[in-house]
Amino acid sequence: xxxxxxxxxxxxxxxxxxxxxxxxxxxxxxxxxxxxxxxxxxxxxxxxxxxxxxxxxxxxxxxxxxxxxxxxxxxxxxxxxxxxxxxxxxxxxx
Length: 94
Description:
Elements: H1 2-5, H2 8-28, H3 30-35, H4 39-61, H5 69-93
C-alpha cells in the first residue's frame, strides 16, 4: 500500500484535486469575496491553475515526460503560448 501512495501518479492526482479545489474556491465567490480582487486577477489565477493541471496531466498521465526532446519542447511552448494568449485576452477585454 505504501508503494501506491508514493507513486508519482498518485501524488499528481492528489495535487490535481487540490488545484481543482482552489480553482473552485476562487470562482464560486468565496475567494473573490474575501480578497476583493478584480475579476481579471481571479480569472488569470484560474487560467494559470488550469494550465498547470493540463501540464501535469499531459506530462504524467500521457507520458510526455519521457517523450523525445523536440516533442517535449513543442508541448511546453504550446502550453505556455495558449495560457499567455488567454491571460492577455482576459486582460485586454476586461
